[in-house]
Amino acid sequence: MEMNQYLEVFIEESKEHLQACNEKLLELEKNPTDLSIVNDIFRSAHTLKGMSATMGYEDLASLTHQMENVLDAIRNEKLSVSAEILDVVFASVDDLEEMVFSIAEGGDGKKDVSRVVEMLKKIENGEAVAEESSPSNEVTLSQSIQDYDDYENAVIQQSKEQGFSAYELTITLREDCLLKAARVFMVFEILEQAGEVIKSVPSVDQLEEEKFDHQFTVAIVTKDSSEDIQNKVMKVSEIDSVNVQPIVVSERNMKQAHEETSQQQLTVAEEEVPKHVQAKEQVKTASKQVAATSTKTIRVNIERLDILMNLFEELVIDRGRLEQISKDLNNNELNETVERMSRISGDLQNIILNMRMVPVETVFNRFPRMIRQLAKDLNKKINLEIIGAETELDRTVIDEIGDPLVHLLRNAIDHGVEMPDVRVKNGKSEEGNVVLRAYHSGNHVFIEIEDDGAGINRERVLKKALDRGVVTEQIASTLTDKQVYELIFSSGFSTADQISDISGRGVGLDVVKSTIESLGGTVSVDAQEGKGSLFSIQLPLTLSIISVMLVELRKEKYAIPLSSIIETAVIKKDEILQAHNQKVIDFRGKIVPLVFLSEIFEVPEESENEDFVSLIIVRKGDKMAALVVDSFIGQQEIVLKSLGNYLNSVFAISGATILGDGQVALIVDCNSLIK
Amino acid sequence: MSEHISGDLKVIVFQLQDEEYGIPVQQVRSIEKVQHITRVPRTASYIKGVINLRGVVTPIIDLRKRFGLKVLDDTESTRMIIVSKEDMEVGFIVDAANDVIDIHQGIIEPAPEVVGAVEVEYIQGVAKLDKRLIVMIDLEQVLKSNDERSLLGV
What is this structure's pTM? Predict the structure, then answer.
């Protein structure tokens, strides 16, 4: 069977369930007696097991199964939650995650999990907990269907919630019945009119081949009463008796059922298909729909959004033309219609853009677990507080921001927060506080990581900076504290004296800084020795839309990102000064070099000699430059486009955009203009 | 219809100077009239710039220049052939594009030492059709930037 189309869904959902497990386990650690949390974990684990078994990932399924047993024991109060048990369960979630990631990367999802499985078994057996292989309170009618698998249970449970009833019919044909298969067919026809057959013993195939004695059992969901069903079936000739029993689904199965299926699955059963295939079909659709109903969202490939966006821009361009036409024609009705259309398309644009926004939560929620492990490894006590996880960011930013944040958090815990005894000695509480905060401000999102640890030692940073030649002695003495702290972002810098497993592996904060800068953001640090440090990341709301200043160079239009512009100015030509063969200006007491954009961009045609020069003062870090342009067109929000794979690196151009008239304008990369 | 479909290659035929060239139809996305091209500074000389192709910024290569032919002004018949190869999409400026023909793969001969002025490395082979000669283009070679330096603007 073709699994590929389900693989993506499987991976996504597995990740979600593992995340849920992680979160709930952390919660459980804080409230070890709250069995409802165990139930939640159990449900996630169980769904995961079902999904992986369906997809054929046996290792994944068997480990989940083992984990489920332990959880089940806890749930039934045969085991009590202890740190040891939690550790093992956490470890198995780790293994599961590893397997899922391996699958996501195209691997086979296999992993040697024998150690964890053994531990899980030990926990299970050490407490002498026998696994409940089947729910105890099942119907024990003679010839009744002994057990329903999870999917069938799910169907039954769901149907009950929908007001259907589930019955098990034991149908006995007369001893002298000649055409058994025909009777079976008639019975099924009646049952299918009344409801849906979900299972039969023997199977439909066997029934059709008359491979049964005189009795068979059918499970059905229906809205009819048991008497009605019984009477209807009895109308078929050569039937001796019909015994109708309501199906009781055990508590355990109800929970699963709730998770696994939604109502639509009830009606999909088709007789011709062998039952086990049906079950698989169901769970696949089911798992898809769980996501749909639980969060009321759908997953959309980001490429499709881009296509939508592109189409929309086409529309916007045409809208511009229409506006022009209606202005020329000056027809009232046309004007009104065009205005209305403009307004609606404006709203639409907002909606499309917002579709790319994702709460930062998706990144944040993996941190609590990471911090727990880290604190354990380092023998530190850490309390992580997350604020503003609902803050939304562009999807592309979200995808990139995870690694830098992990780095900064590890940093805060490894270097920042002191050992418990040291903290006590310094009059602090034993437990270190780390705050991860996200919030909107203007056109930016801020993410801050604050700890109440040791802060940064100015002398140590300076010493290291001098050793590595990052600064000279002379400069070092003039730096403010904050400037010194910022040195830790310079390349190859690490204050860790000892290379530990957690940080100081050569990949330093410089990588964090460059990643964030590549996203159009900035990162800064402030600290107070002995009190703690604060890393602050500023990110643009979205990468796809930026504010720019449109400028003209002869007949060509260029866009300069507002984020790097300090201000614009028009100066007299004689204010341009000469310094070391470089034209400069005196800008508020600072000497700023001039960059003639038309020279850099080799714009054809000579510029006319004018008395005034239009300048755009841009900056990169502390350095500034004044870009000389012909004229300013104005400020505008534009949609960023790449130049495509063919033109992947053009000097001083970071991308392109499409203007209202349908033409392409290039975006100037100010960073590459300033050395 | 044809007895040997498998051996036939549907080819878009276009003109450059007096030669006829062919690109397999699978590699061609569309044929466009010439529209406004935004120059991209400091790129290779044969890169004319970029256009807005239905919302996608698409680079345009002047094929005459790429092949080292004499550059002419655009005319009424000048076209842009949008081709795609793997994840690259570019447009070629050609003198005219007006034919789609089936070429039996068997009649494609290896490139002779000299065909017109076009360097052999861009040519996959030559197909002889009655009195016509169709030069089959090797898209990969054309798109390969043998001149990385000019792209980087160094």
Answer: 0.51
